[in-house]
Amino acid sequence: MNVLLVFAHPEPRSLNGALRDVAVAELKAQRHDVRVSDLYAQGWKSEIDRTDFPALAHDARLRPGPASGEAFAAGTLTDDVKAEQEKLLWADVLILQFPLWWYTMPAILKGWVDRVYAYGFAYGVGEHNDRHWGDRFGEGTFAGKRAMLIVTTGGWEEHYAPRGINGPIDDLLFPINHGILYYPGYDVLPPFVAHRVDHLDEKGFNLIADHLRERMRTLATTPPIPYRQQNGGDYLIPSLQLRPELGDPGASGFALHVENSCAQGIVHRDRECA
Fold this sequence. Notes:
By secondary structure, this protein is an alpha/beta fold. It contains eight helices and eight strands, in the order βαβαααβαβαββααββ.
């Protein structure tokens, strides 16, 4: 498979850098073709602004969504953005790797999404009618491809458990997994999360590295998170509300948008199947 790893950490000698090297080495050992977008090393511009749209009239008001759509259709997006889009079209698997900073991804990676996910490329595709509300959430440009996160945290695993003070890690990562990866069509694999990384000794690192190698070996076979498809009949259109008869009666929030994974034999972290 073709694998694109987008790496967002400012220090190549960091634990994240070491884990990136472990992942890339294992992927190559499995005969995958690998490309790495090292955003800090590339000097990636994180903010989206007028310089992203060279063809935009000087006196025109900047509306990033429509401007990106017009530039994408006309082929006038900047070269750095077009290069990343080409990588995404090339890749069968996308991996986003980053440290969890203030409960989300670093700004440089969010800026990569803001600039690369142009209208007409990653969103704003497909027609809207009373049965189909665009190609998204299970459909879209990247349908048939896989994606996953490699994430590190400074906190303990217990801090990110259902009763942990930070909230469940799956909830914290939902906006990325569901909103950035599943939205344009990716099959999203459960994330690889390494906790308490600021206090790892050699034994701890080796254990995490072994687990990461196993995840890289099973990229093609790991069942994806069973998110509900927007246009699959589970949601009312155009309100995009989950049908009232679906979901556990006591469920709310993000859990409503994941099908009963226990019935499918899929067990998620911190969840038990009765």
